[in-house]
Amino acid sequence: MIFSSLTFLFAYLPLTLAIYFLAPVRWRNLVLLLVSLFFYGWGEPVYITIMFVSILIDYTHGLLVEKYRDNDKKARYFVAQSVVFNLLLLGFFKYIDFFAENLFLLTGIDLPMSATLLGITIPLRNIPLPIGISFFTFQTMSYTIDVYRKDAPVQRDIINFGAFVTMFPQLIAGPIVKYKTVAEELNERTHSSENFALGARRFCVGLAKKVLLANSIGALWETQLAAQQAGTMSVLGGWMGLLAFGFQIYFDFSGYSDMAIGLGWIFGFHFNENFDYPYMARSVSEFWRRWHMSLTSWFREYLYIPLGGNRGGTFKALRNILIVWFCTGFWHGASWNFILWGLYFALWLILEKYVLRGVLEKSPAVVKHIYTLVVVFVGWGLFAIEDLSICGGYFASCFGGASIWSAVDGYLLRSYAVTFVVLIVASTTLGKRCWQRLPERAERILSPILMALALVICTAYLVDGSYNPFLYFRF
């Protein structure tokens, strides 16, 4: 079940809100846990078991870390156990096929399809990926680390901890919520009509970004990818495709994050922002401070800094950047294109840090902006196309290996011209700044009207159309 579905909008969400707000305050975390488990099990009921195991393991390890706080060796041992368990869980379900395929290519040894343990047959290949496993394993892993660091209090109520792990607004695609961010609100939070209204408005904004913007431009990316595979794509068509995918993934994922943050407000939680107009960045480094900020923050706090960060000389700093971005790429998917995508950005970050810094500082803002967008949108092509041979052919066409343009490109440009203008404007702070300049009375009047209009139009699109992918669902 995804947020931009009729089932969620007109069945699950209204019923959940009714049950939640009718329940006594002391029961609301239990209600949140149960409705979140139902939400997660809607598509894959069998994987609720994994959720229960994850909750139990990290809950007990948090208690063990707290119990042995005076014995640092034991406390670190239980932290390590928690980290290893989460990584093994993620590795088994997400990466087992990748390792099996590459092991076979290197050695000719093929991993069996299944194994029997204590009379139980365990599949070892072609295992369906549990939805959102990359997100909730990182969240639970950070919990025990934060308890060890004394950055977060231990949670002794397993219902409260389970509500944190399974909280449906951010369960399947983030933002990655660290326990310390919501620790106090799990125990006691404020529900108000103002927060409900702000959350509903933020949800509607995110829904419109996903349905009206991301879905509208996504079809152009599919068209250009099909044209490349058919051998008819031009240079202009290739770049239009990269722009289309770049806008699609931004409005798709940032729209989902807006919906998650809005739902969090409705239920009394305040999640950190996940996007800050990344396409306005003037360097690749700045782009990654603005894009998927919860993931960037996670890797910085739990991997880059523990590795030593930029301390210890140039060699170690370079090593740490490469390790972090290898992991960032691999986190996104069990495929070589994601690894190359991570290393691609590692290379640009290293170049900016050690080679291009002086040049960028002296360059006009428009030059820096164009340079950043070119690097980022080329990176999106590497991210989007998992088959490296197809990916190579696509980039070959983009960089002169095809005709400059075709008659089809003119038709597509005319068809998508208004959409591109809207996407460009919506990627900037222009709309936000115009809204903030409105008189308070006008804002109060327009807000519910625009929310209702967005909901009606999005519903019409969802009823009428079948193209409603969610790109981060597979992560």
Question: What's the structural blueprint in terms of helices and strands?
Answer:
Elements: H1 6-22, H2 28-41, H3 48-67, H4 72-107, E1 114-117, E2 120-123, H5 133-149, H6 158-166, H7 179-187, H8 193-230, H9 235-266, H10 284-290, H11 293-307, H12 314-332, H13 336-354, H14 357-362, H15 365-384, H16 388-398, H17 407-426, H18 430-436, H19 440-464
Antiparallel strand pairs: 1-2
The main pleated sheet reads as: 2 strands, antiparallel
pLDDT average, as an integer? Answer: 90
| Run of helices and strands | HHHHEEHHHHHHHHHHHHHHH
Continuous helix count: 19
Q: Gyration radius, to the nearest Å?
A: 23 Å
Question: What is the percent of helical residues?
Answer: over 70%
How are the strands of the largest sheet arranged?
1-2
Shape: globular
Q: Which segments are poorly predicted (pLDDT under 50) over 5 or more consecutive residues?
A: none
Q: How many discrete structural domains?
A: 2
Structural class: mainly alpha
What's the end-to-end separation, in Å? 15 Å
Total number of strands = 2
Report the portion of residues in β strands: under 5%
